[in-house]
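does this look right to u?? glutathione version
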Amino acid sequence: MSLTLVLGNKNYSSWSLRVWLLLKAVGAAFDEEMVLLYRDGARDQVRALGGETGMVPLLKEGDLAIWDTLAIFEYLAERFPGVWPADPAHRARARSYAAEVHAGFNDLRAAMPCNTRARNRRAVITPAVEADIARVLQIWETAGRHGSPWLFGALGGVDAMFAPVATRFQSFGVQLTGRPLAYQQALLNHPLMVEWLAAGAAETDVIEASEIGI
Ligand SMILES: N[C@@H](CCC(=O)N[C@@H](CS)C(=O)NCC(=O)O)C(=O)O
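got this back:
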């Protein structure tokens, strides 16, 4: 049965980016179906495809519909090696980071919406946003220690989780140094990311709520 990823605008949809990047990184073959987000009827369109929340990403395989990024990651982990590290301790840690991204960093998200083509945006850095950035950097300090630029060896689920954070920091000019900078650049310059970012840059739809900080 073939896989179809129902995804949102590539410029704006951070959760879509995560699943798309992971699918590509593990070598899964899949079709894409885009729903332009926040237009009238967008959620109904996703629901009609089986996404019960009306949100993207949604992964379809025949009649099976899987919504929510972490659920999709775990479904892919059952089918493809490389979603999580092979070492159980690394795997547990990678899942902890991924769960942290999935459940948290809400202040950072709100202050710096995903808008991959945006540059020179200014965010209001409250103490809560500062704390989120500090936590991201603490995790990124551990990148590059397993014989690759990534967090645990090969590019995998945990790195896909952080991919939109790398673009947010680029859009909002968060200054990085050392290992966090190297990790951000490795993400932004990976050929799959370059492909995704080019597609986002070519889109013309504008989601006003994500166009902040100008
Ligand atoms: N918890 C969900 C979050 C999904 C989500 O927030 N998707 C956004 C796009 S990045 C969306 O569908 N927004 C459109 C809407 O809310 O109508 C996941 O992990 O996949």
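Strands lie at 3-7, 30-34, 58-61, 64-67. idk if thats expected tbh
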